[in-house]
TrEMBL record:
It is found in: Bacterial flagellum basal body. Residues 216-259 form the Flagellar basal-body/hook protein C-terminal domain. The keyword Transferase does not apply. The lineage of its organism: Bacteria, Pseudomonadati, Pseudomonadota, Alphaproteobacteria, Hyphomicrobiales. It comes from Stappia sediminis. The basal body constitutes a major portion of the flagellar organelle and consists of four rings (L,P,S, and M) mounted on a central rod. The rod consists of about 26 subunits of FlgG in the distal portion, and FlgB, FlgC and FlgF are thought to build up the proximal portion of the rod with about 6 subunits each. Belongs to the flagella basal body rod proteins family. GO terms for cellular component: bacterial-type flagellum basal body, distal rod. This is Flagellar basal-body rod protein FlgG. Keywords: Bacterial flagellum, Cell projection, Cilium, Flagellum. Residues 5-34 form the Flagellar basal body rod protein N-terminal domain. Residues 96-159 form the Flagellar hook protein FlgE/F/G-like D1 domain.
Length: 260
């Protein structure tokens, strides 16, 4: 029976849906994480009586027709790039983005990755890097004798040097994309540019179209536990209903096979 195959596609879809939800919940406390949502599409239809076909020589047509669907498929796992809660940390190398934009990160391969995670560290050379040691771009090097690091809303980095003077040492720039949902996640809170995202548009914080920075703060994950739990319950019920359809189709097939 076709119902077996159709219900099986529904079970597979909800299994993937639960996997997406579980990944969101697992990253509930991941800095700068953006939640995902599974999107589905119906599969091809079999026309047993095509809508709009003529039923007589006088021009009457079929008003609705008979179409039998063949199930569901996963169309996308869209990433929801809404703003997460900005929370204070007190650490002088933590920076949060409020609004549009990504920090630019140089990978060991020389490629540029993008992140919303502003939990930066100072390496042995005084350079600001990610927790994995990848430097931000443009590079920011903190002098060895510097103290009282400040980053203003426009991304200007200043320190107090050994003489007690305020010294400007660099400018943090941001990148944004026409289709930021088209970025490819590679783990470690990093994204890569793709043909779908378009080329990176680089500018300073508070430039037109860009957000600003908040020093000594971090952006939390935008995952909402209540939303994920309600989505999980809905996915579980949909999976259960599809499994019952398979059970009903099996019972119907068993009835037919027992006919004498």
């Amino acid at each position: 029976m076709k119902a077996l195959h159709i219900a099986a596609t529904g079970m597979r879809a909800q299994e993937l849906n639960v996997e997406v939800i579980s990944n969101n919940v697992a990253n509930l406390r991941t800095t700068g994480y953006k939640r995902q949502r599974a999107d589905f599409q119906d599969l091809l239809y079999q026309n047993q009586r095509r809508v709009g076909t003529a039923t007589s020589d006088t021009g009457t047509i079929v008003p609705t027709g008979v179409q039998i669907g063949s199930g569901v498929k996963t169309a996308a796992t869209a990433r929801i790039l809404t703003q997460g809660t900005v929370t204070p940390t007190g650490k002088d190398t933590d920076v949060a983005i409020r609004g549009e934009g990504f920090f630019q990160i140089e990978l060991p391969s020389g490629d540029t990755a993008y992140t919303r995670d502003g939990s930066f560290q100072r390496d042995a050379n005084g350079q600001l890097t990610t927790v994995d040691g990848y430097p931000i771009q443009p590079g920011i090097v903190l002098p060895e004798d510097s103290r009282d690091i400040t980053v203003n809303a426009e991304g200007v980095v200043q320190v107090v040097n050994a003489n007690g003077d305020v010294q400007e040492i660099g400018q943090i720039q941001l990148a944004r994309f026409i289709n930021k949902s088209g970025l490819e996640a590679i783990g470690d809170n990093l994204f890569l540019e793709t043909p779908s995202s378009g080329a990176a548009l680089v500018g300073n914080p508070r430039d037109p179209g860009f957000g600003d920075l908040q020093h000594k703060h971090l952006e939390a994950s935008n995952v909402e536990a209540v939303t994920e739990i309600s989505d999980l319950i809905a996915a579980q019920r949909a999976y259960e209903m599809n499994s019952r359809i398979i059970q009903a189709a099996d019972e119907m097939s068993s009835t037919v096979s027992q006919l004498r």
